[in-house]
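Postdoc handover notes: sequence design on the structure in folder B. Input tokens:
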């Protein structure tokens, strides 16, 4: 056997075993059902379609991809009330880049959520590369929320073309009803972390606001394979995106991923409301349970730890790094954070995957104890092993279509 092939097989087997035995609390990864994965190896894989300005397709068979995209648009109209949908990109950052290139021009000014506020670190880099000036969105770190009074004062200046909300670390989504844009000012709302919550009506839909372009990666709270999704109800933005994304910035796409995304959205139409509301409920129950073990957690108010799937545990820098090492040893997935939003240092957890297992308060109480014991694992090794075994047995997928085979 080819030595590299042998190494790949070993690597694949190790990955599969790791997936089976991990306790998944990473806010940026999720479980994808077998139903949704089916199109990844369908005949849609590798197909090419290019529709020119005269609406003719220069690739024989390309009409199948056009029809696939039409089905996706129909489903996004149902779930998000979108008038325009594009899934030609592969990630949330790809979405933002093509949107910025389509809707902004060199010399424009925008307002943006910064990395210190939980904003995605790539956004300022992209804006710098495109020659677009930006100012930080005013932020209230005590409330984990936008400072709307100061933001609206900036909006009234007429200086800014767009507000860009792009938060990767997020327990309190922006309330667009409090944002007063002036003139032709628009909003690019990166919902990568919350697309599933939006689809399941657990978080307010940004497209309820007319001047919004909603974008995002599709593999966090929306449990689909990696894909990028761009949607809007604004016809002027739709026309600019339609004109520019293809053929100017993209040609070859991944229609098998688009088909898998479509299956995910269909699945969410059936199960999303129950699943996504359960995700936020579990996050708050876990926050309460961890507080009883003297973890220090961020809160959106006195009664709520989060309005999304994420929890912020606040720690010192040394505590954060030690905790991450301990979690890694016992295959508990989570993220370290070193930014002002976390009081400089801390841990980010996400409940979207354990919610897919339909865990109850009982399982989450066991999880909270496990997370507590990870502070000093040397003193609790056997207990940790037993708790892990119990929780791994409870990794049983729910909220999905079963036994639907698409040949």
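Designed sequence:
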């Amino acid at each position: 056997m080819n030595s590299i092939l042998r190494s790949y097989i070993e690597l694949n087997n190790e990955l599969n075993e790791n997936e089976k035995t991990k306790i998944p609390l990473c806010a940026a990864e999720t479980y994808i059902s077998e139903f949704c994965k089916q199109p990844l190896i369908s005949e849609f894989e590798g197909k090419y379609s290019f529709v020119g300005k005269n609406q003719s397709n220069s690739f024989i068979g390309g009409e199948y991809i056009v029809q696939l995209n039409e089905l996706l648009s129909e489903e996004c109209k149902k779930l998000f009330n979108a008038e325009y949908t594009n899934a030609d990109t592969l990630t949330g950052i790809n979405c933002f880049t093509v949107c910025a290139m389509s809707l902004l021009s060199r010399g424009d000014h925008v307002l943006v959520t910064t990395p210190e506020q939980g904003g995605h670190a790539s956004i300022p880099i992209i804006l710098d590369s495109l020659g677009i000036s930006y100012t930080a969105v005013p932020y209230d770190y005590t409330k984990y929320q936008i400072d709307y009074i100061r933001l609206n004062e900036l909006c009234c200046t007429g200086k800014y073309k767009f507000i860009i909300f792009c938060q990767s670390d997020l327990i309190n989504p922006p309330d667009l009803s409090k944002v007063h844009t002036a003139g032709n000012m628009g909003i690019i709302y990166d919902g990568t972390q919350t697309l599933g919550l939006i689809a399941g009506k657990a978080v307010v839909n940004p497209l309820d606001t007319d001047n919004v372009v909603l974008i995002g990666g599709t593999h966090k709270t929306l449990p689909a394979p990696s894909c990028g999704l761009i949607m809007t109800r604004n016809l002027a933005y739709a026309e600019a995106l339609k004109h520019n994304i293809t053929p100017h910035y993209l040609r070859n796409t991944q229609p098998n991923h688009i088909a898998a995304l479509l299956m995910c959205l269909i699945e969410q139409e059936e199960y999303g409301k129950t699943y996504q509301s359960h995700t936020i409920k579990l996050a708050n129950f876990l926050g309460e349970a961890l507080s009883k073990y003297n973890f220090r957690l961020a809160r959106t108010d006195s009664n709520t730890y989060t309005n999304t799937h994420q929890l912020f545990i606040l720690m010192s820098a040394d505590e954060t790094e030690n905790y991450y090492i301990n979690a890694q040893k016992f295959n508990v997935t989570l993220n370290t954070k070193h930014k002002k939003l976390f009081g400089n240092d801390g841990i980010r957890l996400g409940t979207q995957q354990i919610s897919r297992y339909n865990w109850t308060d009982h399982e989450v109480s066991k999880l909270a104890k496990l997370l507590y014991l990870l502070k000093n694992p040397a003193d609790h090794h056997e207990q940790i092993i037993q708790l892990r075994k119990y929780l791994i047995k409870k990794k049983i997928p729910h909220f999905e279509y079963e036994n639907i085979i698409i040949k």
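Context for whoever picks this up: DSSP finds 13 helices and 14 strands in the chain. Don't rerun without checking with the PI first.
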